[in-house]
Amino acid sequence: MQRVSLPGIAIQPLSRTDLTRAATLCARAMRDNPLHLAVFGGPDTRRQQRLQRLLAGLLGYILRKGDLLGAYRNGTLVGVLGLLPPGRCRPTWRDLPRLLPTLLTSNTPAGSLRTAIWLNTWRRHDPGTPHWHLGPLAVEPDWQGQYVGTRLMDYACNRAADACLYLETDTPANVRFYQRFGFSVLATPVILTTPSWLMVRPLSDQHPQPHGDHHEVFSQ
Predict the structure, then answer these.
(1) What is the largest CA-CA distance in the chain?
(2) What is the CATH number for 102?
(3) Domain that includes residue 46, residue range
(4) Count H helices, E strands: the chain?
C-alpha cells in the first residue's frame, strides 16, 4: 500500500506491532460514545479498558482482511482508520475462533449479551450490495478538530473508488460530519435504547468537497 503524505500528517499502514497503540487510541476517543456507555457501562476507566480489549480483536481482524491505517504527526499516532473491502466485512466461520475470545472476555457476562445485541443489530443491517465498510475512525482527543479526521476521510473516499462506502455511528455530530463527504442516512436502528445511524456514500463521480473539520467530534 502506498504511503500518503498530507500537510503535517502522514497516513500509512499500521503493522501488527501498532495494534495495542491503535486500540488504546480508539478506546480513549470512543470511551464516552452513547452505545459504549450502554454496552460497557461502569466507571470511565473500566469502560475504556473493556472497549480497548474488544477493539484489539476487531482491529486485528481488519488488519488481516482489509486496510488498517494510522495518521501520524511527527511519528506520533494521532488517528486510526479501518476499511474492509467488498465481501470481507462479515466474519466467516473460520474467523470465529479468533474473534470469540475477544467478544467473551471484553465485558461481563451480562455485558457480553449487550455486546452481542449491539454488533448483531448492525450486522443484520449490513448492505447486501458491494461496499467498503468504514470503521473504526478515531482521532486522539487532543487532536480532534485539527484536520486529522478530514485527512483520514479523504483517504477513505479515494481508496473506495470502486464501490460505495458504508459506516455506522451513534453520535449526531459525526452524522453531520459524514454528510459533508456525501454520506446519507440509510436507517436509524435503536440499540439498547440508544439511537444509531447507518450511512452510505454512493459510488459517484460527484461528491461534496468539505472545507476544514473544525466541527469534527470523534469518534465513530
Answers:
(1) 47
(2) 3.40.630.30
(3) 4-167
(4) 7, 10
| 23-44: pLDDT as tens digits | 999 999 999 999 999 999 989 9
Count: domains in the chain = 1
Contact 49, 130 (CB under 8 A): no
What are the tens digits of pLDDT across the range 74-89? 899 999 999 999 988 8
Q: How far does Cα 208 stand from its chain's mean position?
A: 21
The strand pair at 131-139 and 164-169 is best described as parallel
Write phi, then psi, for 163 (nearest 5 degrees).
Answer: -160, 170
Q: State the Cα torsion 152-119-64-28 to the nearest 10°.
A: 50
On average, the pLDDT of the chain sits at 89
Res 204: pLDDT: 67
In a domain, 218, yes or no: no
Task: With beta carbons less than 8 A apart as the criterion, state whether 199 and 185 touch.
Answer: yes
H-helix or E-strand containing 128? Answer: none
- pTM as predicted: 0.88
Q: Which residue matches cell numbers 504511503?
A: 3
Cα→Cα distances 90→39, 66, 208, 217, Å: 21, 12, 29, 27
Alpha-carbon distance 13 to 34, whole Å?
Answer: 29
Residue with cell 479498558: 49
Q: Look up residue 102 and give its three cell numbers.
A: 475477544
